[in-house]
Structures are given as structure tokens and as C-alpha cells.
Write a structure and sequence with these properties.
Elements lengths: L10 E6 L2 E7 L15 E5 L1 E6 L15 H16 L2 H17 L2 E8 L2 H11 L2 E8 L10 H15 L5 E3 L1 E3 L7 H14 L3 E5 L3 H11 L3 H7 L7 E5 L5 H10 L2 E4 L1 H6 L7 H6 L4 E3 L12 H16 L7 H7 L2 H6 L17 E5 L11 H8 L5 E6 L2 E5 L2 E2 L4 H19 L1
Parallel strand pairs: 4-5, 5-6, 6-7, 6-8, 8-9, 9-10, 10-11, 11-12
Antiparallel strand pairs: 1-2, 3-13, 13-14, 14-15, 15-16
Helix pairs in contact: 2-3, 2-15, 4-5, 11-12, 12-14
Enzyme class: hydrolase
Protein name: 5-methylthioadenosine/S-adenosylhomocysteine deaminase
Cofactor: Zn(2+)
Length: 422
């Protein structure tokens, strides 16, 4: 799967250290090589999840079936104030990584608190991470003042800048929780280090109405007016974009992190991704956090990304399987500024790949590989995963995280939280 979307029916991939050295038809003979037999499998780039809040696994199912602003302000923010500690973030992050790895994610983009812990855990797990401390105009579990938050943010960037596996970014929560000054400070850091800016934009109709009332412009227009939209920006959700907003995204090369399941569950709306793509906007796919999704399964998310535009546009040709899979891999890597490293299987790129059991009963017969992956596969078909030339899962066993200990620790965390609420 490369820029030309080629399929090699019986090919081999030669990996040296952390890079793909050669891809070709037939078997590559190397006397001293370690061979992995993938007969009956599809080998493809791992999924790139462009919008997550991984420690929210501790809040999976905590407050369901509520409007976003009620869910966030009355339930999630208060719960985070009680539960989000360094110790709990460690446990919740490990649980998230188990789920992500087992469903084929090899790279994710995270916005949360105590991101230094998340980065360190990602390094241990061997998963590629784009991470940034969430900046917001009120106290959070990881900082009490905005200046402290800015300092944490820049410290994280300096700690991981240039790392082989962990890629720092800057996260400004949203136009409705961050002042113009906060947004500009966040943008200044991204320009100083030439790294991405991650932000929620136009997620709900209420957000658009509120921002428009306050600023006289839509969220996208407002961000453009203060110099925030450009090729380094990942705008999560972007559900409520008007034609002018779409044109601004395309002109500035701002990328969208489309989160179809979270948007559906919170009744935020359905982004017109078919129109975005046709206008030249780079659209990628994210899961959002498990408090609003409630999974981190990119296989399922990609299927939703392909099916929803067909239903809303009454057009079976809207967002094809190939386009959806491109959104979940190539487009995602491009959005995160790591397209030169990952997102496709090409000579010179990092060996970030997954192995899918194509001979499984739920997938055969395979007439078209792209259709089979998007419309028929489930996460259990993903047998092995490699990041940066190293296996992080083999035959469904996650190699660098103790699953049983993590699940036990999560249950203990939840039990203790329930005691505090009684």
C-alpha cells in the first residue's frame, strides 16, 4: 500500500534495523535473515489514529447517552479532577495500548494530561506516539495555572524532540476553552520547534453558535483570523464546517481528524468528509477517547468512515474502501507530520506494519483486499504488529505490556474510585 495503492500478491519485504530496505514480488533470499512466513495474510501499514485521549480508558462507560457539553462539563471534567493522577494515568495508558495494539494501531496522536507519563509508557510498549499536554484556560489535574501548563508543554517538547519513536506536539483544547492569547502561545511553540498543533474544532453546532456569538466568525474562520490554521494543524472532529470553512482548510492545508463513532454517540453530527476530500482537505481518522466512543478500534472506525458518507449522501460511491483505508494510514501520517516515516509500506520508510489473517472465515473470499479489510475484517483478524522494525505483538500476544497485571490494576482503580463516591 503506497501512493499508487499497489497490491503485491505474493511479495516479500526486507527489513534492516528499523527500515524497509526492499519490497518486491517473490521471495527475497538472504542467508542470515530471520524469516516471517505470512502466507494467507495481508501485510499492510499499521493504522494511524489521529485523535485520542488514551488515559480515558479509566472512564469508559462512565457517563453515556448525554449531549457533549453536559457530558463534558457535568460529568467528565469533575471525574477527571478526582481520578486523573500520575498513577492512574499509567494504568489507564497501558490498558489503552493493549487495545490499540490488538486492533492494529501502530501510531497515535494524543491530547491529555500527564503526557510525560504517556510518552514514557509508549516508548516501553514500542508504539509510535505523537503526544502533547492539553492546554486549557482553567486548572487541570497536571497544572494549576496556564503558565505552568505552558511550561509543562514546552518541557515535554524539549524532552522528546528528535526521538525515534515519540514525536512531541502542542495541544490547545479548543477555541471555546482557550483564549486568543492561549491559542497564540500554543502556536508560537509549534513554530519555534516546527511541530504539529492539535486542537478540537467545530465539534458541535452549539460550539459553532457560541464561538460565532463571541467572535463574529465560525470557529474555523476565527482560528484563521488569528493565524492558527496551517499545514501543521490537526483539527479534531470538524463536524460543522461551512463551505467557506472547508475552503480555508484546503487553502491552508489544515488536516481533519475525523471521529465518526464518537460524533455519532454524542449526537454531535456527521462530518461531510466526502465534500472535504473532494475540496482537497486531508482527512484522517481518529477514535477519540473511550469515554465517548467507547473503543479504540481503528478497524471499526475505518468502516464507519466509509459507510456514513454513503448513507448521508445516498451515494454508494462516496468515500470508497480504498479512500477510507488511505484516511486511516497515509492521510493520518501526513496529518501528524510523520508521513516521511510511516503510513505506507515503501522503501526507506520505517517498518511500521500489521499482519492480517485474510484466510479467516469472516474474510474469505477476498476479491479485493481493500474491500475485505474495510468491510469484512475485525480486530481479531490482526495477528501481529511491528513498529520501527520490532514486533510489538505476535500471534495476538502483546509483547511489552503485562495484560493480566494491567487489567487487575484497572479494576482496583475503579473499585477505589467507587468507594470515594459513596
Amino acid at each position: 500500500m503506497n501512493e499508487n495503492m499497489e497490491v503485491i500478491k505474493n511479495g516479500s519485504i526486507l527489513i534492516e534495523k528499523n527500515c524497509i530496505k526492499e519490497i518486491r514480488d517473490g521471495r527475497i533470499e538472504m542467508p542470515d535473515a530471520e524469516y516471517f512466513d505470512a502466507e494467507g495474510m495481508i501485510v499492510m501499514p499499521g493504522f494511524v489514529n489521529t485523535h485520542t485521549h488514551v488515559p480515558m480508558t479509566m472512564l469508559r462507560g462512565y457517563a453515556d447517552d448525554l449531549p457533549l457539553h453536559t457530558w463534558l462539563n457535568d460529568h467528565i471534567f469533575p471525574a477527571e479532577a478526582r481520578m486523573v493522577t500520575p498513577e492512574n494515568v499509567t494504568v489507564a495508558t497501558r490498558l489503552a495500548f493493549i487495545e490499540m495494539i490488538k486492533s492494529g494501531t501502530t501510531c497515535f496522536n494524543d491530547m491529555y494530561f500527564f503526557e510525560d507519563i504517556i510518552a514514557a509508557e509508549a516508548k516501553k510498549a514500542g508504539i509510535r506516539a505523537v503526544i502533547g499536554e492539553s492546554l486549557i484556560d482553567f486548572p487541570t489535574p497536571s497544572f494549576h495555572t496556564l503558565d505552568e501548563g505552558i511550561a509543562r508543554c514546552e518541557s515535554l517538547v524539549q524532552q522528546w524532540y528528535g526521538n525515534d519513536l515519540i514525536h512531541p506536539t502542542v495541544c490547545a483544547h479548543s477555541p471555546y476553552t482557550c483564549s486568543k492569547q492561549t491559542l497564540r502561545k500554543a502556536k508560537d511553540i509549534t513554530e519555534k520547534y516546527n511541530i504539529p498543533l492539535h486542537i478540537h474544532v467545530a465539534e458541535t453546532r452549539k460550539e459553532v453558535e457560541d464561538v460565532t456569538a463571541q467572535t463574529g466568525a465560525s470557529p474555523a474562520e476565527y482560528l484563521y483570523s488569528i493565524g492558527l490554521l496551517d499545514r501543521n494543524v490537526i483539527a479534531a472532529h470538524s463536524v460543522w464546517l461551512n463551505p467557506k470553512d472547508i475552503e480555508l482548510y484546503a487553502r491552508t492545508h489544515t488536516s481533519v481528524a475525523h471521529c465518526p463513532k464518537s460524533n455519532l454517540k454524542l449526537a454531535s453530527g456527521i462530518a461531510d468528509t466526502d465534500a472535504y476530500l473532494k475540496a482537497g482537505v486531508n482527512v484522517s481518522i481518529g477514535t477519540d477517547g473511550t469515554a465517548s466512543n467507547n473503543t479504540l478500534d481503528m478497524v471499526e472506525e475505518t468502516r464507519f468512515a466509509a459507510l456514513l458518507p454513503k448513507g448521508t449522501r445516498y451515494n454508494p460511491e462516496a468515500v470508497s474502501a480504498r479512500t477510507a483505508l488511505r484516511m486511516a494510514t497515509i492521510n493520518g501520517a501526513r496529518a501528524l507530520g510523520v508521513g516521511h516515516l510511516t503510513g505506507s509500506l515503501e522503501t526507506g520508510k520505517r517498518a511500521d506494519l500489521i499482519v492480517i489473517h485474510a484466510d479467516a472465515s469472516n474474510m474469505i473470499p477476498v476479491y479485493d483486499e481493500y474491500s475485505a479489510i474495510v468491510y469484512a475484517a475485525n480486530s481479531k483478524n490482526i495477528r501481529s504488529s511491528m513498529v520501527n522494525g520490532k514486533w510489538i505483538m505476535q500471534n495476538r500476544e502483546v509483547l511489552n505490556i503485562d495484560k493480566e497485571a494491567t487489567m487487575h490494576a484497572m479494576q482496583h482503580l475503579v473499585n477505589e474510585s467507587r468507594k470515594c463516591n459513596q
